[in-house]
Design a protein that fits this description.
Elements: H1 21-46, H2 61-84, H3 95-105, H4 108-121, E1 125-131, E2 136-142, E3 153-160, H5 167-170, H6 174-184, H7 187-196
Antiparallel strand pairs: 1-2, 1-3
Helix pairs in contact: 1-2, 4-6
């Protein structure tokens, strides 16, 4: 049976600009909770005690388990991407990734303004993701842990827009938090992710 484990991230070993240790510590507890729940649900599904004959689209144990599994795993994967590319120095990427962003948005500044506005409009997450069908990047909104942008898209930047990501430091000031997020974004990590998936060689 597959199992998830809480990972360690460099963003917890450095002082972030505008994002406190307290926020990061509390945020990590939330991530650990998603890991725990994902494993708990997987164990229940693997136990052989879920009655498949009672599967029902209105309500059934199988439906609830599989639906909430997507939220738990989404919470794991979203936060791993988020934590992984913090602890950078912001700025902008270079090379093909920068060209891809400029091609999609006209300029890097226009992309950044769009991501900030997308994050303010989002209830849960905002992602810069690569769409394999169109060959372009786009800033998508996801209002929950299990609402990834679209099928066949690979998230490259994950911006957590839930209040838990910023309330300790900024209260309701989401825009100021997004500014801080951008100052801590590690474009080297984002570029390596794009390279790993072969996005920059297309």
């Amino acid at each position: 049976m597959a199992r998830y484990e809480a990972k360690k991230f460099r963003s917890f070993d450095v002082e972030l600009t505008g994002i406190s240790k307290k926020t990061m510590e509390e945020h990590y507890k939330l991530y650990q909770g998603y890991v725990s729940k994902a494993n708990e649900i997987l164990e229940r599904l693997a136990s052989g005690q879920v009655d498949l004959s009672k599967a029902n689209a209105t309500y059934s144990e199988l439906r609830e388990l599989k639906l909430e599994l997507t939220r738990a795993i989404g919470g794991v994967k979203n936060h791993e991407l988020y934590f992984e590319h913090l602890a950078g120095k912001g700025g902008r990427p270079s090379g093909k990734l920068l060209q891809m962003i400029e091609r999609a948005y006209g300029s890097f500044d226009a992309w950044q303004a769009d991501l900030k506005a997308t994050g303010i409009a989002a209830r849960g997450w905002a992602w810069l993701a690569y769409d394999w069908d169109t060959g372009t990047v786009f800033n998508y909104i996801g209002d929950e842990q299990n609402t990834y942008p679209i099928w066949n898209a690979t998230p490259l930047v994950a911006l957590d827009c839930f209040e838990h990501a910023y309330y300790i430091d900024y209260g309701t000031g989401k825009a100021a938090y997004i500014d801080a997020f951008l100052k801590n974004l590690d474009w080297d990590v984002v570029t390596k992710r794009a390279e790993q998936f072969g996005i920059l060689s297309r």
